[in-house]
Amino acid sequence: MTTTEGKRATYKQRYEPDDDGLRFQELTYTGNFVGMDPVTDGIKGDKMMRARAKSRVLEKVSKEDVLRDEFTIDELNDLNNYLAWNIWDVLVMRATEGVSGMIPRQEYEILAFMHEFYRWPEILRMTTDEVGGAQGVMDIGATARREIGTKINSVHDWCIGAVGFGMGRCGLLALEAIGPDDYIEESNIILKFMQRVLWGKRQDGYILNSQDRYRCRIHEPELLSQITSQLEPLDEGGPAHAKFTQFNAAAELLSFLDHYDCRLGLGDTGPYELPDGQLLILRDLFVNEEIFHWSDVCDDAGLPHCYTLAFTIDPEKMGLAEIRVNDISTTFTRPKNYIEAITSGAVFAREKWNTPMGEVYPITVAELDKHLEKVQTATLKLYSKTSRMCRRDLIWNGQYVYYIDMILPHLRLAGTYEKACRDYDLWEIDQRVANYYYEITKRGFAQETVPSKIFSGSGYLPFSENADRRRSKYRWL
Amino acid sequence: MAEVLAEGYNVFDTSKSPSGTVKYLASPADVIALIQSGKLKEHILLVRGGTTTFLAPALSMGAIGVITMSGAPESHLGILSREFQTPCVMTAHLTSSESRYVVGNTPEAHFEEIAKTLDGRKVRLDCTDHEIGRVLADD
After folding, report:
1. In angstroms, rounded to a whole number, what is the distance separating the alpha carbons of residues A217 and A461?
2. What DSSP character marks residue A216?
3. Exposed, middle or buried: residue A126 (CB in 10 Å: 0-12, 13-18, 19+)?
4. Fewest C-beta in 10 Å: which of A39, A63, A227, A417?
């Protein structure tokens, strides 16, 4: 450690009620609050957004609130505004990354956003019915408390509302395919599903990590105890530390590649403070998703569905000032480099998405070499395979990663995935969205309009105060 | 003090200061050819985007340093560079030019100027500052 010597950890101050957190970026957010003070990122931004809410939906809510059939218009607008800020908070800087050179991500993203908004509502309503109603959906969320290697996680659960509702509606508004008061009933279905899964998972009354100062401490103590018993000490500069961190990076890279350069392949939870003051992070890296046909190279390499890495960070060693596990399951710290402060680690493998927890097995650091080789082999083969695909295939494959994978874990646990495929044509492309394929590259829609509307927050138009909550879309004029 | 050729976001603080000849990679074929050449570790890699899939095999096989023309530490390539502990300067701009990257509204000339100026130069990355990463001449 060279740049943080002599600094003491101050991160605990971030959890004091009056603390506003650090600023991770200089940009500020306006959204639907034109003429008011600009909103910051981080803890202060969360406070500002909640202070502007008209309802109580952004505060801790009760089980009865979550079981209620639908949101009011004020609640819908508060969620719309908060999710828009949250999207800006986690993605505005990421969205500066420009073209991929490999995968046309902006193009596949916008198609998926709109597809989700159109198609998910009836599938999520069917799924809610199949699990016996709202409580069944909350129970799906609660499973994440007892498992590792599960895609019932922050990023997937957040995507239901933030992407399917928020970005989907925003994209269609920008395309002028819908108006602000279209599809209110459908918006309610999507957001209620999101709220129920997240509430069931967290069980502290909040739904998002940003409401809890960027903490996602969801796992039951018994599970954490089993995991920490497997931690091996890792000395910075030593071979075991290098082996563990290299495996972390390589597996994370493959999880990105298998999921078409998106965040659905990884999931962090934590930070859990251990009795010795170390901070535990759990990281799921999904290196082989069986529903993707291109993942055959991961099968060939003998990779499991998921590697879970558990590791501890010494906050004093890095002079930790703030740690965020954000709502897209990614950990950011100040100072930025936490890798050198990793002091212990453990790795686990879950062979299939439904492998029972009792059959999830640990991998010692000494055994990581052979797993690293598998990961690197699959990475090279998948890269070569992807580089030969035409643009259209890349866009539609990426679209499927978003549109299918974001709700896949919930449908799997509900037992409705096959029904959605069979009776609801889940893997078909809606004709409206198929036609948008030719529209999104015109007038810079995907590369200029979408980033400016979706990532700046300016496109999340509110529902009218007196709008009818039963409203769908009835007129195409 | 060595000449500062370019500056950008520093993805993470590190005392590592890799040195090499800048190699501009324009296509996946360029990435594959570089790996097959066996000379990956002789180069600081210059790429246009801040996404991670484009550079996937290079990162996996031990790239020593990366410069991008767009993106930020929160971008996927930023996250992976941190995990690999590969020093990385993102959204680099030339200190000799007024041209800057603007999301969705950057002329091709901006990228071409950076590629033309840096490709083939011997450089060293300085990533010790919390916020700013620097590309230094190392000729």
Report:
1. 33
2. B
3. middle
4. A63
Q: Give the integer Cα–Cα distance in Å for A192 and A171.
A: 21
CA A369 to chain centre: 29
Cβ-based contacts of B50 with chain A (< 8 Å): 94, 96-98
ipTM: 0.92
**Each residue of B99-122: pLDDT tens digit?**
999 887 889 999 999 999 999 999
**Residues A453-470 pLDDT 10s:** 888 888 999 999 999 999
Q: What is the CATH number of the domain that holds B103?
A: 3.50.30.10
User: Which residues, numbered 94 to 123 in chain B, qualify as contacts with chain A under a Cβ-Cβ cut-off of 8 Å?
Assistant: 101, 103-106
pTM of the predicted model as reported, rounded to 2 decimal places: 0.95
Q: Which residues of B are less than 8 Å from A105 in CB distance?
A: 51
Segments in A92-133 forming alpha helices (H)? 105-130
- Long-range CB pairs of A222-228 (<8 Å, 24+ gap) are A223/A145, A223/A146, A223/A147, A223/A148, A224/A272, A224/A280, A227/A148, A227/A280, A227/A282, A227/A310, A227/A346, A227/A348, A228/A274, A228/A280, A228/A310
In sequence order, the 6+-apart residues with CB closer than 8 A to the CB of B89 are: B6, B7, B8, B9, B10, B11, B66, B67, B68, B125, B127, B133, B134, B135
For residue A350, how many other CB atoms are within 10 A of its CB? 23
CB contact under 8 A, B11 and A448: no
Alpha-carbon gap: B125 to the closest alpha carbon of chain A (Å):
16
Q: Does A96 touch chain B (CB under 8 A)?
A: yes
Could A253 and B80 be called an inter-chain contact, meaning their C-beta atoms sit closer than 8 Å? Answer: yes
DSSP string, A306-348: EEEEEEEE-HHHHT--EEEE-TTS-EEEESS--GGGEEEEEEE
Expressed as residue numbers, the domain containing B36 is: 4-137
